[in-house]
Amino acid sequence: PGDPSFTLTPGDDTGASDTQGSMRIGCADTAGWEYFVEATDGSGAIVASGACGAAPLAMNLEVFTEHTFSLYQRPAVTPSALTGEGWNLLLTRTTPSALSGCAVRSGSHSNAIVCADKRPETTFRVCWSTSPFASTGESGVTCEDFTINPGDPIRWLHSGLTNRTTYYYTIMAVGADGTTSGLYSTGSKMQGYPECPDVIITFTGENGLIFNSCQPIIF
Q1: Of the N and C termini of the chain, which has fewer Cβ atoms inside 10 Å?
Q2: How far, in Å, CA of 71 to CA of 77, rounded?
């Protein structure tokens, strides 16, 4: 059998509704074989399918749902089509569902992403740019993975930033096999604006520590 390179990466956020996103599916063809992909939701219902080849296949899917992608293969020679030879299941991969309840908090020279979602995954990927973006593969977009301990809150600190500059973010869960969830949002929907206000407010916390509004965020 052929040995394709089967990849799942988030695409842009174009979909039929605000809760839909695009998953890009790539299959590097092996000579003499055809590939076909089915996407099923948590109930096992087929929600999308299509031929997979060197050009990425895009599927619009509900982003807050876990999906399983099944890759089928058959010989590409003409007799296969004539005899009705069936597709053989080659492999399956399940993507984590997209994160929910995420927001950006800004301080001086820093932004923090905090998510209220409780997840089984412990690895997450944040991508950002100083310009709005629809895909993590666009020029100027930087991505970084971070890990948390099981049960810990999902939060990520971005420090050393330029004040009074808008930063655009998205965050994804990363499964055990490296497969990522759909985008939580594109860069146009989640953003932070670090700054040091012209008027600095100083206050004393309950523990006696003194804070002011020009401090960076500290976890």
Answers
A1: C
A2: 19
CB-based contacts of 151: which residues, under 8 Å, 6+ apart? none
CA separation, residue 162 to residues 40, 156, 218 (Å): 43, 17, 17
**Integer CA distances (angstroms), 132 to 12, 22, 83, 187, 200, in order:** 12, 17, 50, 5, 30
Nearest-angstrom CA–CA distance, 157 and 181: 21
How is 10-40 classified by DSSP, letter by letter?
E--S-SSSTTEEEEEEEEE--TTEEEEEEEE
Distance CA 172, CA 184 (A): 6
User: If residue 127 lies in a helix (H) or strand (E), which one and from where to where?
Assistant: strand 123-129
* Number of alpha helices (DSSP H) and beta strands (DSSP E) in the chain: 1, 16
Question: In this structure, are residues 61 and 104 in contact, taking their beta carbons and an 8 Å threshold?
Answer: no
pLDDT tens digits, residue range 6-18?
666 655 544 444 4
CB atoms within 10 A of CB 145: 13
